[in-house]
Write a structure and sequence with these properties.
globular, alpha+beta
Length: 98
């Protein structure tokens, strides 16, 4: 899958492997990979802390969303297990635990 990002394109299958998490310990919202220990993105402050937190959760969930959508594209049988994963992912993005 190619995604246009301004003047260059990136292959989404080459993203930093998940899971990602939001680290607020630095005083900013950094999306980090525990596998690499590196920051993969910064979430810029929004009008409210709640909005910034929500954006950070959504960004941190990107690898899981990508994996789920990729798997949905190959489903030929029951989707019950995928629906359970999707609901857990949505709860995580909304700020609850899966």
């Amino acid at each position: 899958m190619k995604v246009s990002l301004g003047y260059h394109e990136t292959d989404m299958s080459r993203h930093t492997p998940g899971p990602w998490f939001c680290n607020k310990a630095t005083g900013t919202h950094e999306i980090e990979s525990p596998r690499t220990g590196q920051c993969v993105a910064h979430v810029h402050p929004q009008k409210t802390e709640a909005e910034t937190d929500a954006n950070a959760r959504l960004s941190a969930a990107a690898p899981e969303m990508y994996d789920l959508v990729k798997e949905l594209g190959t489903v030929t049988g029951s989707t019950a297990g995928l629906l359970i994963r999707a609901r857990a992912l949505l709860a995580k993005i909304k700020g609850g635990q899966p």
